[in-house]
Amino acid sequence: MGLIVQKFGGTSVGSVEKIRNAASRTAEEWKNGNQVVVVVSAMGKTTDHLVDMANEISEAPSKREMDMLLTTGEQITIALYAMALAQNGIEAISFTGWQAGVKTEAIHGNARIIDIETDRISKELSAGKVVIVAGFQGVTADGDITTLGRGGSDTTAVALAAALKADKCDIYTDVTGVFTTDPRIVKSARKLLNVSYDEMLELANLGAGVLHPRAVEFAKNYGLRLEVRSSMEKESGTIIEEENEMEQNLIVRGVAFEDQITRVSVLGVSTSLKGLSTIFSTLAQNHINVDIIVQSRTEAGAANISFSIKSTNLPETLDVLESNKESLNYQSIESETGLAKVSIVGSGMVSNPGVAAKMFEVLEENGIQVKMVSTSEIKVSTVVPEKQMVNAVESLHEAFELFSGTVKTN
Ligand code: ADP
Ligand code: ASP
Ligand code: MG
């Protein structure tokens, strides 16, 4: 007997029928004598619909009220899920994030969990109940409701599993595991049986939406083994855990991608020592996340600084740069939208210097223009025209033979 945390994403609880199906997976574990905590997302596209309604009412809705609105989605699912279990003769109790003791920092829309007071959950588990917790939500020290960022239910599940010292954390979703790339876009994508924390963290951060990056961070910090698996098929999924030696031979393990990227260039920046830091600290103070950064010198001795952002942040970014023009001391700003980021990830890259060269070769051969590049020990990211994104992903997936030899088969 052990303690299991299960998480079911939006598609897996997208209808009453699907909630019944998910609840049967919970019932199975419970009937085997385990204690079970279930974390659920909002049903289907509920969160998207709530966002659309808010945007219909206001161009810039208050972030506090957005959190109040979006957390209602998960609250629907927890109640229905508890009812479905009761229907199976299993005693269950549902909790919102705040009832479950999920404490977060006071940042609306993208809060980090700082602590989970698990007393109430533990008490109900001891009483023999299955506990159902609303994902993606928490409460600040002042009692305000927060959300953890889109896709954040994964993080609720992993943080709860860590806090409760669970024996297992299963992330049930609409694919059978983590693939070499998004299986909905590239049909030849293959399921990986094992992925290391570091590789998964890069994949998630670089756009593989199958797991929320902070969930992977938590799992890594607490050494928690995760399994990503299907809520419909009974087959085993992908294990995310500490890297083993065999995997270090696998140079490229996956291709991740993200559309709606914009390049912003700040031209003619004075090259005084603080020029660069002032630009990025000003953006950071305004909570604008900057990704790839490239700097070049002009003939006149000034600097041109380009960086990539999510396109949705463009108006705010331009606003911040323009309203601080004097202190930032630059000549002009340019921006290019309609871009995408395509990245290859693999922990074996660190000892294989030719990987980036091969990536650029493949992109060149396929007529794909590389606008920006960034590398780390285990990834190479490129910014390319959005129209060429899928072509780039497919070409790289094929060139690095992700559909055949490099997939570990145990
Ligand atoms: P959930 O609602 O269960 O949280 P998500 O939509 O957030 O599900 O995540 C699952 C989706 O992630 C899949 O449907 C798939 O399209 C996408 N995805 C992107 N990259 C990958 C990948 N490398 N492996 C598996 N799925 C991926
Ligand atoms: N319902 C939230 C979203 O759609 C959280 C989640 O599904 O993980 O982003
Ligand atoms: Mg998700």
From TrEMBL:
GO MF term (any one): ATP binding
According to its UniProt record, this protein's enzyme class is: transferase
Binding of substrate occurs at: 47, 74
Q: Does the record's keyword annotation contain Repeat?
A: yes
What keywords sit in the KW lines?
Amino-acid biosynthesis, ATP-binding, Diaminopimelate biosynthesis, Kinase, Lysine biosynthesis, Nucleotide-binding, Repeat, Transferase
Q: Which reaction is the catalytic activity of this chain?
A: L-aspartate + ATP = 4-phospho-L-aspartate + ADP
Metabolic or biological pathway, per its Swiss-Prot or TrEMBL entry: Amino-acid biosynthesis; L-methionine biosynthesis via de novo pathway; L-homoserine from L-aspartate: step 1/3; Amino-acid biosynthesis; L-threonine biosynthesis; L-threonine from L-aspartate: step 1/5; Amino-acid biosynthesis; L-lysine biosynthesis via DAP pathway; (S)-tetrahydrodipicolinate from L-aspartate: step 1/4
Q: Name one GO biological process term.
A: threonine biosynthetic process
The ACT domain sits at 264-338, 344-410
Statement: the UniProt record of this protein carries the keyword Cytoplasm: no
InterPro entries for this protein: AceGlu_kinase-like_sf, ACT-like_dom_sf, ACT_Aspartokinase, ACT_dom, AKii-LysC-BS, Asp/Glu/Uridylate_kinase, Asp_kin_monofn, Asp_kinase
- Which Enzyme Commission numbers does its entry carry? 2.7.2.4
Listed Gene3D superfamilies? Acetylglutamate kinase-like, VC0802-like
Q: Which GO terms describe its cellular component?
A: cytosol
Residues noted as binding ATP in the record, renumbered to the chain = 7-10, 173-174, 184
Protein family per UniProt: Belongs to the aspartokinase family.
NCBIfam families membership? asp_kin_monofn, asp_kinases, PRK06635.1-2, PRK06635.1-4, PRK06635.1-5
Q: How does it assemble?
A: Tetramer consisting of 2 isoforms Alpha (catalytic and regulation) and of a homodimer of 2 isoforms Beta (regulation).
Q: What does this protein do?
A: Catalyzes the phosphorylation of the beta-carboxyl group of aspartic acid with ATP to yield 4-phospho-L-aspartate, which is involved in the branched biosynthetic pathway leading to the biosynthesis of amino acids threonine, isoleucine and methionine.
- Return the protein name: Aspartokinase
Lineage of source species = Bacteria, Bacillati, Bacillota, Bacilli, Bacillales
